[in-house]
């Protein structure tokens, strides 16, 4: 294609079409409109104006083939999409090479759907002319960035927008096409759309060039259209307006048509969709504002009087919604709103009120200048009346994977959201107490493993062994869930088979990457058990028997022990008598491996290792791990890093291998020894290790921390402030429950629970403390009473960190 930035030639090209790359807008649009190979219908993907005139335009062109801008993978779905039994909105869904799901939604006001329906009624062939989903051309290597900056020449799109009329903030298409379409001839609407596309493309070229991804797509479109037109066929191309100027220069000798992707390519499906997801405010980048209003405009079929009637119905419904919310909105307000909408349209030179005029009138008359109470009620009414919540429906006989119907039947049996009852809800399940809840939990876990996006777990309360005693879910049936069910259907025709296939594929990928790691293996085992897949649980247990004893770190071993305990007690559903026996046997092996690995923690500075050490000591009391555990802890208490020493000393007390008072005396000595920076750094690490077990110590050996708290109480102000960062670093290791117990202990010592609420900012408190300290030091230098050297007042008692 000739570079539109350099050419000024307006002569007829070799294809018989006048080139559309002239710098004269009128000549360019004339050339595009005169194109016969192909006959161009430039569209926006959701445009009531174009959808209304597409049938008349195709009648006039009388094509033998209609090419539609859709990925070639969707070719087999076109008959079902155009089926009279299919009720829009619906969406084609497919995954690209990276597995990312993409939607191509259609409503009655989508010009492409209007073209497909026309072709079905007239027996005309339709071809998808865009790149296949897996083609590298969507994101080619070295692709140009999206255009940026100002164009080198005149900004044609800006000029078109300035010349148009409409509401502030409406985009170029609305100003130039949608609001001007009522009462216009179909050809005038087509030319307006071609003009917008040409202006956008011309400006993109001036800003640095058309993105490489668009160029690759257009090259593919030209090949498909040229093959459809060979040798003398009549072809109509229904494509995005931006691409129109690139499709007028087709090769003289058409290449072979690109092959339609085989069945083994990306998985695709046709699913119901909803108006609220079509709205641009839902995050859909090609969406359109207020789909229900757009549907009403389409129903008007370009008749200005019918658009007026649609505006009257919308205003009446808005007033009705306002009254439901308790706000006055009667016939007088409705009539005045309609009058103002019509006046605004006439002032702007429009044949009928557009969406912008309607919103302006509604805001002025019904909003009454109240942005909060009435304004919020009005916004809600507008969303209900103009946005809508219509749902599509597939025609009977539309192909689906076996997984979708199977899952829908399971959800309906459990009375969970399904296509007939799609609304979002929250659900609390107690799988260990209720068999019905257990079945529901398994179904939700299977869907989650398959990536369906049906439910999100938002709360878990456990049993202490890694199993869930109760769970809370937020669940809803969405078009995305329906589409992903079809995608996951390649791994099985039931949720059970699909979940097993997904987990096996994950394990295969991990193995190909050199794994699985211990964490990945435990995640896979846990998922298999939660999804009630006994065969897969047995496979993962066999892998765990080989991998975990030799490779797992102490935290990973403890995680594994929790999971194995849940399996042994049948707190997870995917267990059998044999797997429970194997879980118990493997737990014994892993406990032994954990004890053997204790000396390896001697130099650790990771708080997770300290937590694991204390957790292992707590577990040791139940399993009688013997002298090897006792000796390992004693050695760590003597030779380990300060962090590990603190944790090991706490563990010895928990195992009744040392006394609480001796531990308290040691901790108090750490505070005394923290007289220099190195000593304070050591104090912070020792306390971090010790207080990792703060909760169990306060519960089972409350006297262990008594001497430490007494020593902190007795510190002078300067000594306390010097040690405060180290003390705080150590006490940060306490869990929330441990902190609560510590506060209870402090309250008992002080006789009342201290109020630790600090109303002043932390920075201001620090300044106050520094000023108080400086004052005390100044008084002490003069040996005045009240400084701690006389007898008039004792030094203030510092609060616990």
Largest sheet: 4 strands, parallel
Q: What overall form do the CA principal axes indicate?
A: elongated
Spatial strand sequence of the major β-sheet: 1-6-2-5
For the terminal residues, how far apart are their CA atoms?
A: 74 Å
**Rg value:** 36 Å
Low-confidence stretches: 1-18, 141-152, 785-801
Q: What is the number of helical segments per DSSP (H or I, 4+ residues)?
A: 32
Structural class: alpha/beta
Q: Return the average pLDDT rounded to an integer.
A: 81
Number of strands: 10
Would you give an account of this structure?
With 801 residues, the chain is of the alpha/beta class. It is built from 32 helices and 10 strands. The strands form 3 sheets. A 4-stranded parallel sheet has the order 1-6-2-5, with helices on both faces. Strands 4-3-7 form a 3-stranded antiparallel sheet, with helices on one face. A 3-stranded antiparallel sheet has the order 8-10-9, covered by helices on one side. Strand 3 (90-95) and strand 4 (101-106) form a beta hairpin. Helix 10 (291-300) runs antiparallel to helix 11, helix 12 crosses helix 13 and helix 19 (518-530) runs antiparallel to helix 20. The chain is elongated.
Topology:
Blueprint: H1 25-34, E1 39-43, H2 48-61, E2 65-71, H3 78-81, E3 90-95, E4 101-106, H4 111-122, E5 125-130, H5 156-163, H6 172-178, H7 186-206, H8 212-229, E6 235-240, E7 268-272, H9 275-278, H10 291-300, H11 304-324, H12 331-347, H13 355-365, H14 373-387, H15 403-413, E8 425-429, H16 435-449, E9 455-462, E10 468-475, H17 479-488, H18 495-512, H19 518-530, H20 534-551, H21 554-568, H22 577-596, H23 607-623, H24 627-639, H25 642-654, H26 660-673, H27 677-691, H28 694-700, H29 706-714, H30 717-731, H31 736-750, H32 762-781
